[in-house]
């Protein structure tokens, strides 16, 4: 970035701050619905880089789509789009743009309450002259990919669809020619998809009474339609291959022998022939798929690259005449014996992991009602040998039902290919799709579900023969899960015990490629109970000869055989610079092509400046293009031009969008400017301090909007883990799910302190004390923080630390703990209900940072539990804990509240009935946010205490609760 441009930015920022300060007034919670901002994160440039589209408008209200040219920012057009956000889609040749227009915000809310649909319009705008055409009741639309001559629109039915077995699922599909504006209508279309070059359209028909149902192929150049297959069935999930030369789909049809429709597979290739080659497969009559299994409705079939086979998923299917249920153990044993075929999935579409027991689990069949059945107990048996807890199996039942075991069908031999079993449940394919690797968790599944330390055996699977070979035994997955095939399919990169290895898939020889590099690839910031956690990798180079690995600061190009390594960064360790991300500006590239320019996000760990670095084509030296006191977003390059786009934001400037036509990003043009109506913060200050453990750490102090040097301000300390990397982020006013919104507090005269916390194993709570208390003292020493008016707040893990800190220090005048765990001993063996698993693994390998169960580590569990130090609490406390919290059990909040209440400590428990770990309902978000600020205003600003805090609540005297309670509770001046 040029010196001239930096000066310009600084002068604009100063002018902007001065102007904002002149009109700055504190925000109230009533202001949030009308807060207007630009949705720069959803901005879309045209493929030629000449246009940019973005949405702007209030948080709650009617929005506007802004369309402007990048060469002349004054040439812009505005389109009202109603109360819902819309995607922005440009045609391939950048001659048209299309977007939805919804009903206004009030109508949408009214329709939602009345359970009426919100039908949308589609506006198509010609970028040549901005002439537009509007289509009513559009459900879906697509441009014809590379061809770009057509627009396909599938319509909603203005009347509710009939719910009966013969009612069709299809709707009208309109093909609109963008060149001559001619329209062609196809009725009862259920699914459709253009191929890559946009000259072919595959579509399925699903009509009333299934009359004329089938799959069809339309050649848009000739207008010829080919009937691929007709049947009284439903055809769906059309999926073209990448090249657009073949497609596959599913067909479902009722079968009297099965309870649910039976799915079959259709593959079409040689699509340009007069009669395209069509292949169908069910696997039922052929008895080739494992007994009790059929093609899964939840899979999306896809062709192999050589078009010799189709990959798809299988799942259990039930016959009409069901035999009496076996016991659970019998079902699991049966599965292990019978599932001879399983998992095959491309690396870009991996299956969800699942256990054998889960695959066997299904909804119990409702027996015929009789007296004996009514006398049976309604109960669950929890057995210590279960690999997954019964609660986990129950919670994950729907996911397990949708899980499908990926398989393959060989076209030439009409053969179902078995590649895995109930243990090796999924296969990641190599790029050549001739081999794959699979992870077998089963030997370690039981123990990993207890302590969270995950291992797996890695197998190499030959796709043609189904032969498998054990390649890596007991690979530790907590440290890194970056296993990947080389582009040549000859090797696999993986991490183990502090080093990266390359596995030869033919010989299974393993080569340590980092042992001779004078650096460490063990993360210095990951302080969980994980052995030698990895720093990370950006993956393989396009030619398969190198991998790009990062240590804690520098980036390395390491050869496949480990015999050579090149540091791509200029000793960034000495400068404390590091690459935060790889920005892939070539969407079709699956690996890093070093013959092209490559971009990376960077950060300076000294001051949290961020920027962009360039690794020029065929170069071994990274160049930092920009580094500034702002958060710089990833670089995006358009497809058909040398135009680079990125966003920029600071605590005082909302996200702005820039474009440069130079790959060095010099002289960027601001396309979308700061949308803030007023100043919400006067900026941020990075503070360095020494923890009580002797570590040099940092904290961010966000300044209040009305900041005047030399004055002190009430301060909210917000904690979680490490937060300083967000120093330059902008905070948007919003109703928060966790109660706290930084912008609202800085706008209302508060400073906000966010410190980093570094943990010692077996001392998570004490580590928070050792880091947070010195951070507060360092913030006070700046002269900005009013030492007598500092409060603390955190949610979830931050709520735990808040609850603990007030047992160890009295520096906080008030505290709010959201969803806190308070008793590590009782919490350890409770259930994480959102997943159904126990908390034990969270304590021993994740946030808990404890090394064993409490029976071998009692002192650590007690020492770090708020409940065991409850007599020390002198700080007034609000606990927010909901009765349906699926992460931190509700009893944790209740236990802490009742303990404090028994000791006559000032405490209020807020419970939002029916809510989970965070608040999802807007009425509850408003309520909690207002109560929290009322409370802090009382203790830190001396305002009158609200009645709900000072007087208590008589349940029988409660007035009717109103949805706009948040606006009745307080009016913030």
Topology readout:
Layout: H1 3-23, E1 36-45, E2 51-58, E3 63-69, E4 76-82, E5 88-90, E6 96-101, H2 105-114, E7 121-126, E8 132-135, E9 138-143, E10 150-155, E11 171-177, E12 183-194, E13 200-205, E14 214-219, E15 225-230, E16 234-240, E17 247-253, E18 262-269, E19 277-281, E20 293-295, E21 302-303, E22 309-316, H3 328-338, H4 356-360, H5 371-374, H6 390-395, H7 397-402, E23 405-410, E24 415-417, E25 427-429, E26 435-440, H8 445-451, E27 455-462, E28 468-476, E29 484-485, E30 491-496, E31 499-504, E32 510-512, E33 537-540, E34 546-550, E35 555-559, E36 565-567, H9 572-575, E37 577-583, E38 598-604, E39 610-615, E40 623-628, E41 631-632, E42 636-637, E43 644-649, E44 656-660, E45 669-672, E46 681-690, E47 696-704, E48 713-718, H10 742-747, E49 751-755, H11 764-781, E50 785-795, H12 797-805, E51 814-818, H13 824-828, E52 831-832, E53 837-838, H14 840-845, H15 858-863, E54 877-880, H16 890-902, E55 907-910, H17 922-941, H18 947-950, H19 965-969
Helix pairs in contact: 11-12
What are the defining features of this structure?
973 residues; alpha+beta; Rossmann fold; eight-stranded mixed beta sheet; seven-stranded antiparallel beta sheet; 55 strands; 32% strand; globular; disordered C terminus
């Amino acid at each position: 970035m040029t010196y001239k441009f930096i000066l310009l930015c600084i002068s604009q920022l100063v002018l902007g701050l001065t102007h904002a300060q002149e009109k700055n007034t504190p925000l109230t919670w009533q202001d949030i619905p009308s807060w207007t901002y630009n949705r720069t994160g959803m901005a879309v440039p045209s493929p030629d880089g000449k246009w940019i589209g973005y949405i702007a408008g209030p948080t709650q209200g009617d929005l506007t789509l802004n369309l402007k040219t990048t060469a002349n920012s004054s040439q812009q057009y505005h389109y009202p789009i109603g109360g819902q956000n819309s995607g922005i889609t440009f045609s391939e040749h950048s001659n048209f743009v299309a977007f939805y227009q919804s009903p206004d915000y009030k109508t949408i809310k009214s329709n939602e309450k009345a359970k009426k649909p919100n039908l949308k319009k589609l506006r198509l705008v010609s970028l040549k002259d901005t002439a537009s055409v509007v289509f009513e009741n559009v459900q879906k639309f697509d441009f014809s990919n590379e061809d770009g001559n057509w627009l396909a629109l599938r319509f909603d039915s203005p009347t509710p669809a009939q719910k009966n077995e013969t009612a069709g699922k299809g709707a009208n599909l309109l093909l609109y020619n963008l060149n001559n504006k001619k329209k062609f209508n196809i009725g009862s279309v259920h699914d459709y998809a253009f191929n890559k070059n946009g000259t072919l359209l595959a579509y399925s028909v699903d009509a009333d009474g299934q009359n004329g149902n089938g799959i069809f192929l339309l050649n848009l150049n000739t207008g010829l339609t080919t009937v691929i297959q007709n049947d009284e069935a439903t055809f769906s999930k059309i999926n073209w291959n990448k090249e657009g030369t073949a497609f596959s789909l599913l067909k479902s049809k009722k079968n009297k022998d099965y309870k649910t429709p039976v799915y079959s597979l259709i593959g079409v290739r040689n699509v340009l022939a007069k009669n395209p080659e069509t292949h169908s497969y069910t696997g039922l009559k052929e008895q080739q798929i494992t007994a009790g299994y059929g093609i899964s409705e939840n899979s999306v079939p896809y062709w192999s690259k050589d078009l010799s086979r189709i990959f798809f998923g299988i799942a259990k299917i039930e016959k009409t005449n069901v035999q009496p249920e076996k016991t659970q153990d019998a079902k699991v044993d049966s599965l292990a014996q019978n599932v001879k075929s399983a998992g095959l999935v491309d690396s870009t579409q991996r299956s969800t992991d699942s256990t054998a027991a889960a695959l066997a689990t299904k909804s119990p069949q409702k027996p015929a009602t009789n007296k004996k059945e009514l006398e049976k107990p309604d109960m669950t048996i929890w057995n210590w040998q279960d690999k997954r807890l019964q609660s986990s199996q129950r919670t994950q039942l729907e996911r397990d039902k949708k899980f499908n075991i990926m398989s393959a069908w060989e076209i030439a031999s009409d053969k179902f290919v078995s590649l895995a079993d109930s243990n090796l449940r999924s296969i990641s394919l190599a790029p050549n799709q001739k081999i794959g690797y699979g992870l077998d968790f089963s030997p370690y599944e039981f123990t990993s579900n207890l302590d969270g330390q995950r291992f797996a055996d890695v197998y190499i699977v030959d796709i043609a023969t189904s032969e498998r070979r054990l390649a890596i035994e007991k690979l530790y997955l907590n440290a890194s899960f970056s296993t990947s095939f080389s582009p040549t399919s000859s090797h696999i990169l993986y991490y183990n015990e502090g080093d990266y290895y390359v596995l030869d898939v033919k010989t299974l020889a393993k080569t340590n490629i980092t042992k001779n590099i004078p650096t460490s690839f063990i993360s210095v910031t990951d302080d969980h109970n994980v052995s030698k956690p990895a720093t990370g990798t950006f993956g393989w180079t396009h030619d398969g000869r190198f991998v790009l690995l990062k240590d804690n600061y520098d980036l390395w190009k390491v050869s496949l055989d480990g015999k050579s390594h090149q540091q791509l960064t200029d000793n960034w360790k000495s400068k404390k610079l590091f690459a935060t991300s790889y920005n892939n500006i070539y969407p079709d590239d699956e690996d890093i092509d070093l013959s092209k320019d490559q971009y990376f996000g960077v950060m300076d760990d000294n001051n949290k400046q961020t920027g962009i670095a360039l690794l020029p084509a065929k170069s071994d030296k990274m160049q930092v293009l920009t580094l500034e006191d702002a958060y710089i977003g990833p670089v995006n390059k358009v497809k058909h031009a040398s135009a680079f786009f990125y966003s920029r934001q600071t605590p005082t400037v909302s996200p702005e969008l820039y474009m440069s036509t130079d790959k060095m990003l010099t002289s960027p043009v601001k396309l979308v400017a700061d949308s803030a109506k007023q100043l919400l913060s006067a900026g941020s200050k990075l503070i360095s301090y020494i923890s009580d453990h002797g570590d040099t750490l940092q904290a961010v102090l966000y300044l209040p909007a009305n900041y005047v040097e030399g004055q002190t301000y009430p301060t909210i300390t917000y904690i979680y883990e490490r937060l300083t990397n967000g120093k330059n982020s902008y905070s948007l006013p919003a109703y928060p799910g966790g109660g706290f919104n930084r912008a609202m507090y800085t706008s209302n005269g508060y400073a906000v302190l966010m410190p980093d916390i570094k943990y010692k194993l077996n001392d998570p709570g004490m580590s928070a004390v050792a880091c947070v208390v010195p951070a507060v003292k360092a913030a006070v020493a700046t002269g900005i923080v009013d030492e007598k008016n500092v409060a603390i707040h955190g949610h979830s893990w931050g709520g735990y630390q808040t609850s603990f800190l007030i047992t160890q220090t009295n520096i906080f005048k008030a505290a709010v703990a959201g969803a806190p765990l308070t008793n590590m001993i009782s919490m350890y063996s409770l259930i994480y209900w959102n997943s159904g698993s126990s908390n034990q693994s969270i304590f021993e390998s994740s946030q808990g940072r404890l090394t064993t169960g409490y029976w071998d580590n009692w002192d650590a569990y007690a020492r770090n539990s708020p409940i065991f130090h409850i007599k020390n609490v002198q700080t007034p406390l609000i606990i927010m804990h909901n009765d349906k919290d699926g992460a931190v059990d509700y009893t944790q909040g209740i236990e802490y509240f009742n303990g404090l209440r028994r000791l006559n400590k000032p405490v209020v428990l807020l419970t939002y009935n029916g809510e989970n770990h965070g608040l999802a309902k807007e009425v509850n978000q408003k309520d909690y946010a207002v109560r929290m600020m009322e409370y802090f205003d009382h203790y830190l600003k001396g305002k009158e205490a609200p009645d709900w805090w000072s007087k208590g609540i008589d349940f029988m005297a409660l007035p009717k609760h109103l949805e706009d309670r948040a606006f009745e509770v307080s009016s913030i001046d």
